[in-house]
Amino acid sequence: MNPEQRIAIVKDFLNKLGALEIEAACEHVAEDAVMLFPYLSQPGPYEGRQRIFEQFNSTLPAFWERMEFSYRQWYSCDDDTTVIGEFDSRAIQKGNTGTYANQYIAVFQFRGDKLTLIKEYFNPALLTVKI
């Protein structure tokens, strides 16, 4: 699998999350995947596809009507299993009560066509203020 194919999978994963198609998004996640947010003090890491699905399913629909991502830059790594993305989000809060926006740098590792690591860096202060 080449870097462009991995990037396409990550974009599809994020776009499906943004559309709140969480089950479809998690089809890209390996059974033994790990997801973590290093700048959040808790909770996590989330281990396993089911736990990752549960986390997204219990949070995203509770707070957002939808979330849109704009992609700024992608980097492929020499190990041929990792891509790093820079992207922005804009989300409509539930009940159209406002918007949430943030910037991200995220590391995505693969085994074949499945995500095995999702490590997302973003400004948690923006998340705390908006929720």
From TrEMBL:
InterPro entries: NTF2-like_dom_sf, SnoaL-like
Name recorded for this polypeptide: SnoaL-like domain-containing protein
Superkingdom field: Bacteria
Protein source organism: Mangrovimicrobium sediminis
SnoaL-like domain ranges (all copies): 10-116
